[in-house]
Amino acid sequence: QVQLVESGGGLVQAGGSRRLSCVASGRNSDIKIMGWYRQAPGTPGKQRELVALIVSGVGTNYADSVKGRFTISRDDAKNTVYLQMNSLQSEDTAIYYCYALQGIDVYWGQGTQVTVSS
Description:
Layout (H helix, E strand, L loop, with lengths): L1 E6 L2 E4 L4 E9 L6 E7 L9 E7 L3 E4 L7 E6 L4 E6 L8 E9 L2 E4 L3 E6 L1
Parallel strand pairs: 2-11
Antiparallel strand pairs: 1-3, 3-8, 4-5, 4-9, 5-6, 7-8, 9-10, 9-11
């Protein structure tokens, strides 16, 4: 089992920046893919939207809506994945969920709220 704990959410003004962190604990070896998804408010029936993924030893992938504004990075020594969010827009308001894929097992964090005020 892997536990994911996010932090860094909060209220930020449009145009501002925020950095999210997600720490993996438990049986956290060989986690090849980590990333971030988000779910906008008032959309409980909608699937979570991919924001960014980082694949160990391969590279990164971003949603078109965040390319050039968000950067995902990973510190394997700290078992942590980060999401640096710049030039935030009201459309970025959402609950952000950390994601990890270990073998065939998928893990999710509890989510952290990011609210962008215009």
